[in-house]
Structure formats: structure tokens, C-alpha cells
Design brief:
The complex is a heterodimer.
Chain A: E1 14-21, E2 28-32, E3 42-45, E4 52-62
Antiparallel strand pairs in A: 1-2, 1-4, 3-4
Chain B: H1 3-9, H2 15-71, H3 80-87, H4 102-124, H5 130-162, H6 166-195, H7 203-212, E1 217-221, E2 224-231, E3 234-241, H8 251-259, E4 268-276, E5 286-290, H9 299-310, E6 315-322, H10 324-328, H11 333-336, H12 338-353, E7 359-364
Parallel strand pairs in B: 3-7, 4-6, 4-7
Antiparallel strand pairs in B: 1-2, 2-3, 5-6
Helix pairs in contact in B: 1-2, 2-5, 2-6, 4-5, 5-6, 7-12, 8-9
The chains are: A mainly beta, B alpha/beta.
The structure holds zinc ion.
């Protein structure tokens, strides 16, 4: 008869990552997001060929699997 | 044997039977006379709990906007008073009893409002970083929306209570879970906005930014950039809102300009956008279709349809499914990973629907926060 109101704090925790991609060798690295990151931003040196990498994606993953 | 026939047969000596009849009779009368009042009581209780939640949410959004203006925006003076004025600012939509030319009028009112917001926020902040200004605009917009939702729900709650209207209260009670869900999504959006993280709605810009990388960009409409690139002998006019600011740009105006002023004769317009999924559909699923894939109040959609119809260009849509919460909060992995597949679909659509030497417009629709080009 009575429907329930969902709580405002009923969310699983999300961790946000930044993916850096080397435009030369294609090496991808995943690190925690830091404020100021954006897609296409020039980022750290590639660990393989030391060209500067670019941020290719920023996304969040749920700490619970398939949340 | 029912209790009534039993009551007729049994003589006055059986007192319990009479008591039974009296009890059920009374229950029947109470249910008949006070049933709706009882239901109203439950409805009022539940709505008032929801209303409390909404009040907490709108206060939180307001506080977060103020904190952002002070801490990140380095507001010169205390912005609290200005923010409160902001929350109650109204946009009066043009009259629609004479609908000819209505879209132009709506566009004018909306553009005026957007310009006002930006200039006021800009004046409030002690810096000119466009990303910070655009994020402030979005945070204030969220706070305004939550303020509106709270006000409207409170209005119907008080009205229902005052007029003792059972149906008003029950309708509101039924809608409450959906309203809370939407408000919750809005509040969650403030977290992603403050951090400058791309949101799910930014999937179109993400796909398109890959095509624009390293190409020369030009501003084609307000907050909107375009680059020219090539794919298998076709010339692509690629556009998106100017990132990494939290802009949606004016893709309608941009496409009109490409076709009109620039005299481009495209053989296809491909639009990439986020689309609301139905419950049960998977996040990040890709759907294809025809038509102008763009949300909002309809101005951009109208402009794109007009431009496309005038020169008889087919409109193709590539959509990435997501919920309202996922669309306005930080981009989920499933959505981000769809970017590559969308790129493949885009290539296939271009190869199938056009031939070498053709010109094609590709538009990445959506909020481009955290997505540059
Ligand atoms: Zn490398």
C-alpha cells in the first residue's frame, strides 16, 4: 500500500581514474584522477618511450563489482 | 453459513453474535466515513518526510555552490545574498498562442538568460578562468533546480493539506519516489562538477575530441568549436562544445552556419549523444537511429532539423544509453569504454551512407566538462 522513498545516501562508492595514452607507442597507464585532469590534456612522460602522453579517458569505477 | 444468516436464525439469547454484527458494522462505517482521511494521513506523513529530504538536499546544493564560489572562485565579497537572489530568478517563456516564430523567441529568452548568468557569475568571481566560471554556472543551476523542485512539492503538499484534497495528496505521494530520485541525481552531480570530471552526457564530446585532436579549431558558434578532418577520402566537419569548460554550446547554430554561411553541402549529418535508457537496459549500450539526437528545450533540435530539411540531408544518430543519474554524474567505465565502439559505428555509418569526396558533418552533443579537443 505504501511506497517507500529511497534514501539519499544509498550509493556505492565510486573511484575515479585517469587513463593516459602515449600517442607514439600506444602505451596506456591508469592512475587516480587529480583535479585539473581533462581529456586530451598533455600529461606525464610515457614509461616506455618517454614521449609525453595525453589523457584519453576519465571514468569512474564502482568499488563493488557491477554496481 | 454467513454471519448474517446465522444472526437471523439464532434467537436473542446469543449476545456474542450481536456483538459481532455491531463490530463489523462499525468497522464498515469507519472505513466508509474515514477511510480516505486515514489514507490522507499516511500520505501526508510520507510526503512530509520526502519534503524534509528535499529541503536538506536543496540546502546542501546551495551551500556547495557558495563554498565553490568562495574557495575556488575566490569571490571578492560574501556571495550568499547574490546566490539567494539567483535561486529565485525566473525565466519567463514567450507566449505560445501565436506559435509562428516561437523557437526564435524561446532561443532569444534562453540566450539572454545564459548570458546574464555568465556575466553575473563572472562579476562575482575574482578570476577569469573559464572552467571555474562554467562550473559555477552549473552548480548554481543545480541549486536553482533543487530549489524549484522543493518549492513545487511544498506547494502541492500544503495545498492538499489545506483543502483536505485526498487525490492531490495521493498523487503527490505516488510521484514522491521519482521526484526524490531525480533530486538525488542532481545533488550527486555537484560532486562531479566541482571536481571538473567529465559526466556521462559528455560521451559525444569524448568521441568527437579524438577526431579533432591535433587539428586546427575555430569557434563556429557561441561556446562551440569546429575542426576539419578527413576519413577515407571524405571531408569531415567535426564540432563539439568548447571544452574542458562545462559548456553544451550551440550545435544548432553551428550546423546552420556550416550549411548556410560556409556553403558546405553535406551528404550526411551524424550526431553522437547520450540517451536516457529505460529501466532494464544496460548502461553503455549503443543504439543507432535517424533524426536529430539532441535534448534540451528543443531550440537546437529545431535548428538542426530546419537546416537538414532545407538541403535534404539525412540525419543519423548514434546514442549511448545511460540513466539520468549516470548522465549528470562522473562518467562510468561502461560509458567511457563505449567511446571506442561508437568510433567504429561512426566509421561504418560514414562508409555505408556516403562515398569518397563527400562532405559530412559530425557533431558530438553534450556537456563537455573535462573534455577538451
Ligand atoms: Zn610511448
Amino acid at each position: 500500500m505504501m511506497s517507500s522513498v529511497p534514501g539519499a545516501d544509498k550509493k556505492s562508492k565510486l573511484l575515479v581514474y585517469t587513463i593516459e595514452e602515449c600517442p607514439v607507442c600506444g602505451q596506456k597507464t591508469k592512475r587516480a584522477f587529480s583535479v585539473g585532469d581533462y581529456v586530451t590534456k598533455e600529461s606525464s612522460k610515457c614509461p616506455k618511450c618517454s614521449n609525453s602522453t595525453r589523457v584519453s579517458l576519465v571514468y569512474a569505477e564502482s568499488t563493488k563489482q557491477s554496481g | 453459513m454467513s454471519i448474517f444468516t446465522a444472526a437471523l436464525q439464532v434467537t436473542s439469547s446469543d449476545l456474542t453474535t450481536y456483538l459481532y454484527i455491531a463490530f463489523f458494522g462499525l468497522l464498515f462505517i469507519v472505513q466508509f466515513a474515514f477511510g480516505t482521511r486515514l489514507q490522507s494521513y499516511f500520505a501526508i506523513n510520507e510526503i512530509s518526510r520526502g519534503l524534509n529530504k528535499l529541503r536538506v538536499m536543496k540546502d546542501k546544493a546551495r551551500k556547495e555552490a557558495i563554498d565553490y564560489l568562495i574557495n575556488v572562485g575566490k569571490a571578492a565579497a560574501d556571495p550568499t545574498q547574490r546566490v539567494d537572489q539567483f535561486l529565485d530568478y525566473v525565466t519567463i517563456m514567450p507566449v505560445d498562442i501565436d506559435p509562428s516564430g516561437l523557437v526564435g523567441k524561446i532561443d532569444h529568452v534562453v540566450t539572454t538568460n545564459n548570458d546574464r548568468v555568465r556575466s553575473e557569475v563572472g562579476a562575482l568571481l575574482n578570476q577569469s578562468n573559464p572552467v571555474t566560471i562554467s562550473i559555477s554556472e552549473n552548480l548554481l543551476e543545480v541549486a536553482t533546480s533543487l530549489n524549484q523542485i522543493h518549492k513545487i512539492v511544498r506547494h502541492y503538499y500544503l495545498l492538499g493539506k489545506k483543502t483536505n484534497s485526498y487525490f492531490t495528496l495521493v498523487q503527490l505521494q505516488m510521484l514522491m519516489p521519482m521526484i526524490i530520485q531525480e533530486a538525488d541525481a542532481l545533488l550527486n552531480a555537484t560532486d562531479s562538477f566541482r571536481m571538473g570530471q567529465p559526466v556521462g552526457d559528455g560521451i559525444g564530446p569524448v568521441v568527437v575530441s579524438k577526431l579533432m585532436a591535433g587539428k586546427e579549431k575555430r569557434v563556429i558558434a557561441k561556446d562551440t568549436v569546429m575542426a576539419v578532418t578527413e576519413y577515407k577520402g571524405r571531408k569531415l566537419y567535426v564540432l563539439k562544445a568548447d571544452g574542458p569548460m562545462a559548456y553544451v554550446g550551440q550545435p544548432g547554430m553551428a550546423i546552420q552556419k556550416i550549411i548556410g554561411e560556409m556553403g558546405v553541402k553535406p551528404s550526411a549529418i551524424v550526431m553522437i549523444d547520450a540517451a536516457l535508457k529505460l529501466e532494464g537496459e544496460k548502461t553503455g549500450e549503443i543504439a543507432e537511429g535517424v533524426g536529430a539526437a539532441i535534448g534540451g528545450i528543443g531550440v537546437e533540435k529545431y535548428q538542426i532539423e530546419e537546416a537538414a530539411t532545407k538541403v535534404k540531408v539525412p540525419l543519423y544518430a548514434i546514442l549511448v544509453k545511460q540513466s539520468i543519474l549516470e548522465a549528470i554524474t562522473v562518467m562510468r567505465k561502461e560509458i567511457a569504454e563505449a567511446a571506442e565502439k561508437v568510433g567504429e559505428v561512426l566509421n561504418r555509418v560514414i562508409e555505408e551512407k556516403t562515398k569518397e569526396g563527400d562532405e559530412i558533418v559530425v557533431a558530438g552533443i553534450g556537456n563537455t566538462l573535462g573534455v577538451a579537443q
